[in-house]
Amino acid sequence: MPLAPTVAVIGGGQLARMMAEPAAALGIPLRLLAEAPGVSAAQVIADHEVGDYTDLTTLRLVTDGCAAVTFDHEHVPTEHLHALEADGIAVRPGPEALVHAQDKGVMRAALADLGIPCPRNAIVETPAEVDDFGYPCVLKTTRGGYDGKGVWFVTSEEDAVDVFAQTADTGVRILAEELVDFRRELSALVARSPSGQVAAWPVVASEQRDGICREVIAPAPDLDPDLAVQAQQIAMTVAGELGVVGVLAVELFETTDGRVLVNELAMRPHNTGHWTQDGSVTSQFENHLRAVLDLPLGAPDARAPWTVMVNILAGEGAGRLYDGYPHALARDPRIRVHLYGKGLRPGRKVGHVNAYGDDLDDCLERARHAAAWFAGELGDESE
Ligand code: ADP
Fold first, then answer.
1. Domain CATH for 171
2. Cα atoms in the 13 Å half-sphere on the side-chain side of 171
3. Number of domains in the chain
4. Does residue 219 carry a pLDDT above 50?
5. pTM
């Protein structure tokens, strides 16, 4: 008999890998379904199978005997999640909630019903309908996009024709959104347990470049306290009304005229919450696991006035990663480094660093320097 209930995790990326750390501390066994041998999480979770998450037999094999199943990504087919529920496994988050993170069209409709502020949007079926919607606008595939893939900024019918041509074979619906004039992007992160307890971390500012999250500052500097409360309330409302279990990240635009609009939902630990590993009393990974098992949640309070997270993207040249440790760790004994054990394909997220302290500029400088060093962007002048 295991000493604690086993949690199955579907998907072997860095999020599953980072769940393993609090799981080990709490004595909670994890069982992983990895998409290939040796992927990020398979390196650290001994109890793993390699297989296809779209295959129900494989999902049943991995979840057999587990108390609950949770996810590194949102791509497991909804009908399989229903089947696992019928088998008696607690699916967390459950299929009814998860569909809102899988399909942007479903998400927009649900948020409209809840009266949550969103960019003006409509499902469009032809370039002529995009014309009617108006330019400039943003077209998005409702399913399957990530890191800016499946998002197009369009200014003319010609652009719209192009997008429909590119997506014609996929059968995926297209969502049109107004081009939001935003000051910056914010993220409101909460964890919710099945009993309804909610922990809300401070609202953060995230910087995205080419659709990829590069930096996060916690808390968002100079954020109007009313907007911060509004952002947290949106996240708590969405989590409660959609029945989310585990971490919910609500990505928001802070508009130039001082409003917050919801961009996206993610129902799993999120890149904008990686700062919590070192910057808050309880990390998003720990509270995700606690929520999945319906344990009391830990405090989301910040440990320091500022925490900065900077992603390490593999460089065009060879990144340094482990070879960077002698320099990066000696230069800054307070820097916190998280590497994912991933191959160095250029542009890929391979790790992140966190720096926390009393002075924001100092945290920014330290985290940016360390990330740039690992990514191989700095020369040897600072050695
Ligand atoms: P993904 O699912 O790939 O993360 P997002 O919907 O988050 O895609 O869009 C990626 C990025 O594109 C956002 O972080 C934001 O910078 C920009 N973006 C998305 N929607 C809009 C919009 N309606 N107006 C302006 N910029 C947008």
1. 3.30.1490.20
2. 0
3. 3
4. yes
5. 0.96
